[in-house]
Amino acid sequence: KTRSSYEQKLEHAQHSVSKKLLETALAKKSNLIASADVTTTQELLALAEKVGPHVIALKTHIDIISDFDYEKTIVPLKVLAEKHQFLLMEDRKFADIGNTQELQFTSGVFKITDWADFVTSQVIGGFESLDCFKNVGVVAIVGMSSKGALTTSSYREEALKVALSHPNVIGGVSQNQIPEELLLFTPGVNLADSGDDKGQQYNTPEHVFKMLHTDFIIVGRGIYKSEDPETAAITYKNEGWNAYVNSLQKNV
Ligand code: UP6
């Protein structure tokens, strides 16, 4: 089975965020998303400055930032995103009814709607629970990387029906292939480790491009825990791009 190139996906992309992601990937020759799982504003901004030029998006868990302050955290993060041309992906994994998700998305201290380009959401609340994410792209959680995850093949099949039919959805997070109409985001990528002691399971960039035809790799500890996050980001960027190019050539 063949995979589409980023150029081919760009031709068919409907959503402005899908287009932006694919254009950025082609411009930077990168399919890397760095996961900034750090807990202070200073670490977050320092990481964004270092890895920014090499990634297409920075993925945040904004609720783990202990000194979060919109002016001190988000305003400078947006400046860095503009400077280094990356998108902001908030990995909130919404999992509630539409009304509550809307409140979590627009209110509280984080005001995700004001700054995220795209967000992750479970689809367990059903089709209409995704209606509130009008101004962003949604990445649906289809399958999870952790050991014993309950995202069985029948769950994934149902999740994909919601994802494919909802206009706000640009793609999915999964450890399996998903239909070409959706962009595939794959976390659980690490070159040095095969997992952690909390159930995480890792694959290499090579594996996820070849076997899953992924579009974008998400790397957390492989980059931010590294002694030199910028060099690590460049390594994952190059590994990811080469793996993508190889996965295209398998088609010829
Ligand atoms: N993530 C996964 N697996 C999933 C979904 N999301 O690992 O199925 C997220 C985690 C973390 C990042 O919440 O932010 O991707 C992976 O980090 P790591 O590379 O340090 O394991």
TrEMBL record:
Name this polypeptide is given: Orotate phosphoribosyltransferase
Catalytic activity of the protein: orotidine 5'-phosphate + diphosphate = orotate + 5-phospho-alpha-D-ribose 1-diphosphate
Known cofactor(s): Mg(2+)
Entire-sequence positions represented here: 205 to 456 of 459
EC number: 2.4.2.10
Family: Belongs to the purine/pyrimidine phosphoribosyltransferase family. PyrE subfamily.
Annotated active site: 91, 93, 96
Quaternary structure, from the entry: Homodimer.
Organism of provenance: Chryseobacterium antibioticum
Keyword field contains Hydrolase: no
